[in-house]
């Protein structure tokens, strides 16, 4: 369990300290390296830490100079192994940085280590535990990145989300998780799981840090061939003209039913937002958007088979049983069913965009990021069904911690925005975060074992 | 066979006549209507002609005022039936214009009738004959549109291309066929055959008319959810900086081997272009682009099954055997193979774009539009394998007539440009057309039965 106060310094705290000369780049990185090493024996957030920190001695004026960053072991890093938590790739050490990593280094950031992923970002877990309670899963697949930020080791870590691999672990670990619009952070140099669903996302201690980092890493790369489901051609400004923030709450959550504590945490938050002047309306998703689960599963299974099928044929002993099942499932899906799912993805993304912006005029949807607290045990990384539909639609999603549940683990609130309106969603999330009083909840949890469970 | 001189008036001839008052809108449309009715008993270009012309009495300043236009019977027209040449849709009469048709009417154009398509734009033929020789196919699937322009009935007709359904009939009928970049003319209100391959294209008597019409009808529609394979984000200007037109000829054509007459017609044209200052270079496609046939077939079959499968299950007796085979073929394709083909489509489109513009610095590729002259007989609409790869890549393609073959039917030359550079391709094609001396060839063909066969 954590013995030190977490979130000692946020990303922008570090930047201010470095720019003002209070902290050197070397000190900042060494401090993160030390924290990573100290936590590693119990937290297991990292799949790789260099023998000594490899400090990026950048111009202190650069936006990430002195910022220690952790990178999911699915994302290529020159000079550090990238092994996908798979014995089939043991010893793999790419020569080139992923575009994301190159952008981070160019902005002055230092990669302190690689974080544990589930095998190929699917379900076979790694050794990472939940920093709030080591008997609980940190969630997956970006387990180590969520845990490393939650434990205060780094203020910024990157992961990927194909179903719910950023939002879910962030919620379980009590940090901010941000998955921007599909395609907005280039995936060149990142192992795909299902290219039509794969997103890069990030973990931070607060929303403003995510907004800061997003500006640095977002952008097209001509080797990453996807394009967003909803193009900028049809960008409307939604509710931007109004000063009142308008938030929708689904009468019925998509995915698995959530636990009562999660429900009441969201209701509590909604009341706070209303009290501070937001318009909070209960809404129903259009009927055609209520059952995206089968579509997203078909796309995942087929594309995972395309990506990893050859390995299964070559070396079946090197692939976990859950991954093997996924590949076999994908091989059983017909071209017709897969094509229908892909066509539905594009059609429903447009439908959702129109519904959210034109019909409902919402700034964001407020939904559960997970069914509740992180489940007990490390074998199962939790239910992604509350995230997968939004991943499927390619819309931006952010989760922020708002309360503690009955087991003393965090509960989050997920906000969903319109595609290509990432900055708008971040602005709304920052406004919501200011009303979620998470720092107070956390402090009480630390000072009193009987501190507020769910709010 | 044709008894009157075809191409009496081009689109822009009509526009000049209408704008200057030499011709009224009414006269122009009535003249086309009369020509359509006179040719119909032998040409069978139209699936529907109204009892009397429904003239769009537009402002004569509008860019298509007084222009008679024919529309393939796959494209919705309010007030006229759209039956897809399928008994399953007999009597279907849509209430709304396709976006394309609405744009044409808004620009002042008059729809004179619906032109014959093969069933669902696949291979089961309609009754249209080739205006040059009624024993020969006009090509398909946009059979009637190509024939109507070739016979001088209308100066502008629209069709669709999923494999080679604009370029091939245009070449067979001795007219210009233009299929712009995928997505550049919205398909809302057009029956799909395979949405990842479907394009709208047009037929005109010359390149300048196509360029004129393209400006009017191109543009996005938010109900047509595709986006181009190659985005504008990466638009490079290719060879635009140089005054010398640089044209590549493939050492080996894609698709079926072409007939000697087609080969020598292209060689003759290349010599003309060189003599007039173009740089003509023999090039080899990158190896990975040499076998796109299986990929495009997989996409077509699966998507056609998605679109038309339910009809086959419901009413097998109302679908032709070639269409039934296609649907059954599509149902046998696995999700994995289809997903691979879709991924390859995007990857190869980027590969081609880079090769054409960066590596080869070509303004256009000069290739055969078909294997040669239109085949004898109406049962088989001809080989689309010389068009399908470019449709698959989503790049703009234009064919223009250049010579007559041994049977006295036209041979064309197809020019391929870079995605999103439609205007550049049209400009190159106009330059090429001025050197192809087609009007002279045609005139000689008319005045002498022993006129120049292939040049």
From TrEMBL, chains A, B:
Spell out the InterPro entries in the cross-references: Amidase, Amidase_dom, AS_sf
Keywords carried by this UniProt record: Transferase
**Domain named Amidase: residues:** 59-426
Q: What parts of the sequence cross the membrane?
A: none
Annotated region (Disordered) at 124-144
**GO molecular function, a single term:** transferase activity
Q: Which family does it belong to?
A: Belongs to the amidase family.
- This chain's protein is named Aspartyl-tRNA(Asn) amidotransferase subunit A
Name its species. Answer: Caballeronia sordidicola (Burkholderia sordidicola)
Print the organism lineage.
Bacteria, Pseudomonadati, Pseudomonadota, Betaproteobacteria, Burkholderiales
């Amino acid at each position: 369990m954590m013995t030190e106060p977490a979130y000692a310094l946020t990303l922008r705290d570090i930047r201010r300290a470095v720019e003002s000369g209070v902290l050197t780049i070397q000190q900042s990185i060494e401090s993160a390296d030390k924290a990573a090493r100290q936590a590693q024996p119990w937290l297991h957030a990292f799949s790789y830490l260099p023998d000594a920190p490899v400090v990026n001695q950048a111009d202190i004026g650069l936006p990430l100079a002195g910022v220690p960053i952790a990178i999911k072991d699915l994302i290529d890093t020159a000079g550090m192994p990238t092994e996908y938590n798979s014995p089939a790739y043991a010893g793999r050490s790419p020569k080139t940085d992923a575009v994301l990593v190159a952008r981070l280094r160019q902005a002055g950031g230092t990669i302190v280590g690689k974080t544990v992923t589930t095998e190929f970002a699917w379900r076979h877990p790694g050794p990472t535990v939940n920093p709030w309670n080591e008997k609980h899963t940190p969630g997956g697949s970006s387990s180590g990145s969520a845990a490393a930020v939650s434990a205060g080791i780094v203020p910024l870590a990157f992961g990927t989300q194909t179903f719910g691999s950023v939002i879910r672990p962030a919620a379980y670990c009590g940090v901010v998780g941000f998955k921007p619009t599909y395609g907005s952070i280039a995936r060149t140099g990142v192992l795909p799981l299902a290219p039509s669903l794969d997103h890069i996302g990030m973990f931070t201690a607060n929303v403003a840090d995510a907004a800061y980092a997003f500006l640095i890493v977002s952008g097209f790369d001509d080797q990453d061939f996807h394009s967003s489901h909803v193009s900028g051609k049809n960008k409307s400004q939604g509710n931007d003209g109004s000063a009142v923030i308008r938030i929708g709450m689904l009468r019925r959550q998509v995915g698995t039913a959530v636990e009562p504590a999660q429900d009441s945490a969201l209701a509590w938050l909604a009341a706070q937002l209303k009290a501070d002047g937001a318009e909070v309306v209960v809404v129903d998703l259009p009927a055609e958007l209520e059952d995206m689960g089968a579509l997203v599963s078909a796309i995942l299974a087929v594309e995972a088979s395309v990506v990893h099928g050859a390995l299964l044929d070559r070396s079946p002993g090197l692939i976990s049983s859950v991954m093997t099942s996924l590949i076999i499932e994908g091989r059983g899906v017909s071209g017709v069913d897969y094509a229908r799912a892909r066509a539905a993805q594009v059609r429903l993304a447009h439908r959702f965009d129109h519904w959210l912006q034109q019909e409902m005029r919402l700034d964001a949807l407020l939904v559960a990021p997970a069914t509740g607290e992180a489940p007990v045990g490390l074998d199962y990384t939790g239910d992604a069904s509350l995230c997968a539909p939004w991943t499927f639609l390619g819309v931006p999603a952010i989760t922020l911690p708002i309360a503690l549940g009955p087991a003393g683990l965090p509960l989050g609130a997920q906000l969903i925005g319109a595609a290509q309106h990432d900055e708008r969603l971040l602005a709304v999330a920052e406004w919501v975060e200011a009303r979620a009083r998470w720092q107070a909840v956390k402090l009480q949890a630390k000072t009193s074992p009987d501190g507020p469970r769910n709010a």
